Amino acid sequence: MTSMNGSARDATRSARLFFLELSGGRIHSMNPDGSNLKTIVARCHNPDGITVDAEAGHIYWTNMGNPSRDEGSIERADLDGGNRTIIIPQGITFTPKQIHFEKQGGKLYWSDREGMRVMRANFDGSEVETLVETGRGEEDRRDQARWCVGIAIDSPRGKFYWTQKGGDNEGVGRILRANIVIPAGESPANRSDIDVLFDQLPEPIDLELDPENRVLYWTDRGDPPAGNTVNRVHIDDSSAAPEMLITHLMEGIGIALDVPGNRMFVTDLAGSIYSADLDGSNERNFLYAQGNLAGIAYAEI
Hints:
The strands form six sheets. The chain has a four-stranded antiparallel β-sheet, with no helix packed on it. It has a four-stranded antiparallel β-sheet with strand order 4-5-6-7, with no helix packed on it. 4% of the residues lie in helices and 48% in strands. It contains two helices and 24 strands. It has helices at residues 6-12, 137-141; strands at 15-21, 26-30, 38-41, 47-53, 58-63, 73-78, 85-88, 96-102, 107-112, 117-122, 129-133, 148-154, 159-164, 173-179, 195-201, 204-210, 215-220, 229-234, 243-246, 252-258, 263-268, 273-277, 284-287, 293-300. The longest helix is centred in the first third of the chain and has 7 residues, at 6-12. It is mainly β. A hairpin with a 4-residue loop joins strand 12 (148-154) and strand 13 (159-164).
């Protein structure tokens, strides 16, 4: 990958960051250098995950709602926040977290934390499906090891990845992988094609995949030294160990990649946004004290 400085990069490509202020219920947009900060959506209900379909001019985001009330939802709006509409209403997904869109198949994928599921739907919210179900009912819901949080899609290989973070600092977090198509005769609750890539992680949260270079990135909000970090691994090498790229986050949550520009963007609950090269070098905190920040997305528009 070719690296170039930020000014040269941004002079040749128009890009925006979109990120969620969980505590304030707002969605913000800005240039990748932190300039031209705007609030584009307000009065969200605990927003957590965001994805951008720049070609169609849409953002999609999840609202966790109150985790005890099964009132999660998913909304869509234009890139400037206009034409806001609910596409997945309350009562369908319990506590939706990270979300990704997959253009080729025309699907939105998301993890449903207290719902203990990985789910997907069409871009308009129709044809909601459950791909993975790790538990059901109140007793299972008390087991945080069943909670699904992050999500990433590997369209070329027909697979998806997700995280199950476990309880606070319990060291039982996992990253898992399965085929997008459920094996014949099986169900989301008993499918046999689930691989556990890593376990005994502090608290893995959001995922991002570089499908061309076959590298998976994730944030971890658990305790140091392995937690409050950004990590990556080459997913086609079964013997590869995770590489720790960034440390000393204040409960890291969101992550977004700009692979052609050799950079990543990371949010944490302390209200900071960091940028760094994809190997973790040249780390810079360029926005801070912004409230509790959750998901982030990068898009060329």
